[in-house]
């Protein structure tokens, strides 16, 4: 049995958790129906008091980010968060934002009760991922307004860990401060975890493995579920534990976190969020069983200011199992990719992260780990010719023609799509201090 922030809740059988949700959902749905013009219209034919099973949630429409943007398009001084705002403006004490990487950013409010729920829920999130009171945590998210900014800082601090918030400065300064303050935990996006490790020698004159980092946490994008990236992080940072985490500003900043078994992320927002697993095409419910792939849909259970009801995450996840040797009974998952990143080669669907996975798993010794799919225009989804993919290789002395053919053949064999691999020199593809894009538009 592992250690827990809230042992009673975290070790509760999954069926019992879902029964708990039913009781809370009825009250929450009644609240949003009464408090918000947006939800009053959406739920006009639904009677929350008659909710008897999670299957009945299928009677409610899905909520998408575009729905939220639309509801906020007519926001004003009295209702700054639009028609889905469910708390009085004078009771909202903080506003968070999405990153805006997929369009105009959307905004979410927090009341004092929401803040308290965030602190405790995010403490459980980070405690599951291995943060303890005795740790010194390098918190690298630059923007406080983002869900991974101030909320993550408050959650880590609520555990009692020493929190060093060093986002928003140069790579060299981040690494210097980590060294000066003796941080032993690094919290960043998956891309930035790698980026810092790769640039440490150049910035400080020492390998990252010399800095004393024993725990690396990463989220914000798919990546840490892939063994080659996890192995690379362990090599860069001197064999730390590597834990993947995932949340979303739209519902709750910390929803999934990996325990000490390092075998998939547990659902940890047990008290604050109800989750359904659906088929992205049909919208029908899928079982939480090993190997099942689907899209999680979330409903906030206690949120006062801007609660989401049946929010489509657009994440594609794979269930690794339900239950764990750590003692938690919630599902464990890996994030495969973003549904809105999906590409179509003739009649076959493929995710950029799947192409990266094949290349890393089969050619890890020859590549740096950085790839980019190249589109001709921003909205391109369909490819009638092989998908262009730039791949960074470690050494130009290799037989590049043979390596290129091998990569293209392996991707075709495993994914049933064709790519046109362009092998480029190390440090050719861009690295960033936030999320490193797997797709770019041809310049």
Short description:
This protein is an alpha/beta fold and 443 residues long. Helix content is 30%, strand content 25%. Strands 3, 4, 5, 6, 7, 8, 9, 10, 11, 12, 13 and 14 form a twelve-stranded mixed beta sheet that branches.
Report on this model:
It is a single chain. The chain has 443 residues and is an alpha/beta fold. Helix 6 links the parallel strand 3 and strand 4. Helix 7 packs across helix 8 and helix 8 runs parallel beside helix 9. The N and C termini lie far apart (53 Å).
Structural class: alpha/beta
Strand percentage lies at: 15-25%
Instruction: Give the mean pLDDT.
Output: 93
Helical content (DSSP H or I, runs of 4+): 25-40%
Q: Extract low-pLDDT stretches.
A: none
Distance between the termini: 53 Å
Quickly count the helices.
11
For the sheet with most strands, the description reads: 12 strands, mixed
CA-based shape: globular
Strand count:
21
Q: Provide the gyration radius in Å.
A: 22 Å
């Amino acid at each position: 049995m592992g250690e827990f922030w809230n042992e009673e809740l975290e070790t509760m059988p999954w069926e019992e958790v879902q029964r708990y949700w039913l009781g809370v959902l009825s009250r929450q749905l009644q609240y949003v129906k009464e408090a918000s013009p947006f939800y009053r219209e959406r739920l006009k034919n639904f009677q929350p008091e008659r909710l008897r099973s999670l299957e009945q949630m299928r009677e409610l429409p899905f909520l998408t980010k575009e729905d939220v943007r639309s509801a906020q398009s007519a926001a004003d001084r009295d209702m700054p968060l639009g028609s889905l705002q469910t708390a009085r403006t004078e009771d909202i004490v903080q506003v968070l934002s999405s990153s805006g990487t997929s369009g105009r950013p959307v905004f979410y409010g927090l009341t004092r009760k929401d803040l308290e729920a965030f602190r405790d829920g995010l403490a459980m999130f980070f405690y599951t991922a291995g943060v303890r009171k005795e740790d010194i945590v390098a918190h690298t998210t630059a923007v406080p307004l983002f869900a991974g900014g101030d909320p993550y800082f408050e959650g880590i601090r609520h555990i009692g860990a020493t929190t060093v918030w060093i986002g928003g400065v140069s790579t060299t300064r981040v690494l210097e401060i980590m060294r000066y303050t003796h941080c032993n935990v690094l919290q960043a996006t998956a891309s930035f975890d790698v980026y810092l490790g790769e640039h440490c020698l150049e910035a400080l004159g020492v390998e990252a493995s010399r800095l004393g980092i024993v725990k690396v946490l990463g989220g914000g994008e798919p990546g840490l579920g892939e063994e080659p990236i996890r192995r690379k992080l362990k090599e860069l940072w001197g064999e730390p534990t590597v834990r993947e985490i995932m949340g979303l500003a739209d519902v709750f900043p910390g929803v999934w976190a990996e325990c000490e078994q390092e075998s998939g992320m547990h659902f940890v927002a047990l008290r604050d969020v109800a989750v359904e697993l659906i088929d992205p095409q049909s919208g029908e419910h899928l079982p939480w069983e090993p190997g099942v792939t689907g899209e999680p849909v979330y409903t906030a259970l206690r949120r006062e200011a801007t609660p989401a009801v049946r929010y489509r995450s657009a994440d594609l996840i794979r269930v690794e199992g339900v239950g764990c040797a750590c003692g938690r009974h919630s599902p464990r998952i890996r994030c495969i990719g973003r549904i809105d990143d999906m590409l179509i080669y003739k009649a076959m669907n493929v995710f950029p992260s799947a192409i990266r996975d094949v290349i890393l798993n089969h050619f890890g010794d020859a590549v740096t780990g950085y790839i980019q799919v190249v589109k001709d225009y921003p909205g391109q989804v369909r490819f009638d010719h092989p998908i262009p993919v730039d791949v960074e290789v470690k050494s130009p002395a290799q037989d590049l023609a043979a390596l290129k053919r091998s990569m293209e053949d392996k991707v075709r064999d495993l994914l049933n799509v064709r790519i046109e691999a362009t092998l480029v020199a190390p440090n050719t593809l861009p690295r960033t201090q936030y999320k490193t894009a797997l797709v770019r538009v041809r310049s």
